[in-house]
Specification:
The chain is of the alpha+beta class. It is built from 7 helices and 20 strands.
Length: 408
């Protein structure tokens, strides 16, 4: 303000500064006029600055609103772009599947037969167990079932060309998924790793094929369809003793492709020849039949893709643990029937009678849905958010997953 007033007064005084005979009254009058003019100019300046400030504030508000609109628009654009990228990825995957699917059975057999092996387990207790396996990588790793190589004293692997070699167990086989990894010293040149497809892409009705050694009949192939997905089988019903037998294998594939003793550990293939599961059990019904009655089961490849790399790199795979029992027949959520004292659910504040409606962003319609979600995507130490119906009131709990115990 001071600089502005100086520039307003001095031009009026400048022509008079050189006059020697300027009267005192004239000077006084001039000073008064300068002060009056200065006050007027001061008020005008304040008003002008006020108007400028209002204009600037209004301008900033407009700019802020424009920027906010642009940012929101950018967010929407990025969200749309992410959605479009995901759609494109899905289309590419579907295109790949479509291009290689619906191969005739003879072609599927011929492109995979050298990678499927016959396993003989000379058990330490004197018994002999037979099963199947398939090549996982070029380093000699072979996937099979835990129950095929359990209690082994010596494991022999026979390839399609008749070559037999010994194998060693890699890490600690996983009882909870019935998966195991064994390794041989050398692979025949034609025994290439099989492609593995994510089983979450499977649909009921898709054709599938099983290759294995049923009843010792090596290199046999059977065909069928995916009868159902997401089955949950209690390990105790498969002969596994506690504590592991108290748990279940989740997300199991049900098929009507013939599976018999000796098929265990073999690949379940889709119509492109990719592995979607590992055959491991059959339904016997009340007759305790030893042969196939139309219902067979396979461990899903989505679980295989979590377990096997862990066995290969660390020697162990640890499953998440919640510490609850649930009512498997209840629909509309996961009905908590019992809680392990001191377990993750107990620490998180869950109560018997709670109904879990959502886990993270996933809706839970059955207790099995909850188990499948954990087995597919979660590990011990992960935190999950639970939306719970407690006596008609919706509450949210945060739970940190523990680790399932094992007898080994």
């Amino acid at each position: 303000m001071q600089a502005f007033l100086k520039s307003a007064c001095y031009p009026t005084l400048a022509p008079l500064i050189g006059c020697r005979f300027l009267s005192q009254s004239l000077i006084a009058n001039l000073n008064i006029k300068c002060q009056v003019n200065g006050n007027l100019e001061n008020k005008k300046s304040i008003a002008a600055l006020t108007l400028i400030s209002i204009a600037l504030v209004a301008g900033l508000v407009v700019i802020y609103l424009d920027l906010k609109t642009d940012i929101d628009s950018l967010k929407d654009s990025n969200a749309n772009l992410a959605s479009e990228v995901q759609q494109l990825t899905n289309l590419l995957e579907e295109s790949h599947i479509n291009q290689t699917s619906n191969l005739p059975a003879v072609m599927i057999y011929n492109q995979t037969k050298y990678s499927v092996v016959f396993i003989t387990n000379d058990r330490a207790d004197g018994g002999i167990a037979e099963g199947t396996g398939f090549v996982y990588d070029s380093q000699g790793d072979i996937i099979t079932n835990n129950h095929v190589i359990a209690g082994a004293a010596n494991i022999n692997v026979t390839f399609f060309d008749g070559v037999t070699t010994t194998a060693q167990i890699v890490g600690t086989p996983d009882v909870y998924s019935d998966l195991a990894l064994i390794k041989v010293g050398n692979l025949p040149n034609q025994s290439l790793p099989l492609m593995i497809r994510n089983s979450t892409q499977l649909m009921v009705g898709e054709p599938v094929y099983a290759i294995g050694n049923p009843f010792g009949l090596s290199r046999s192939m059977t065909s069928g369809i995916v009868s159902q997905l997401g089955r949950v089988l209690r390990l105790g019903d498969l002969g596994v003793p506690p504590p592991e037998g108290d748990y279940s294998i989740a997300d199991v594939i049900q098929t009507d492709a013939a599976i018999n003793p000796g098929n265990s550990g073999g690949p379940l293939l889709d119509s492109s020849g990719s592995v979607v599961g590992v055959t491991f059990a059959i339904e016997t019904g009340n007759s305790n039949a030893t042969g196939f009655i139309g219902i067979g089961y396979a461990v899903p490849s989505v679980l295989l893709l979590r377990v096997i790399p862990a066995l290969e790199t660390t020697g162990h795979y640890y499953h998440p643990w919640v510490g609850i029992a649930y009512n498997s027949s209840y629909t509309g959520g996961m009905l908590v029937a019992d809680i392990v004292s001191g377990g993750p659910a107990d620490k998180a504040g869950l109560k018997v009678g709670d109904v879990i409606k959502r886990v993270d962003s996933v809706q839970v319609n059955l207790g099995d849905d909850f188990m499948i979600y954990l087995e597919r995507y979660k590990s011990p130490g992960d935190t999950i958010s639970l939306t719970i119906d407690r006596s008609g009131s919706a509450i949210t709990k945060t739970l940190t997953l523990g680790t399932r115990q094992t007898s080994s």
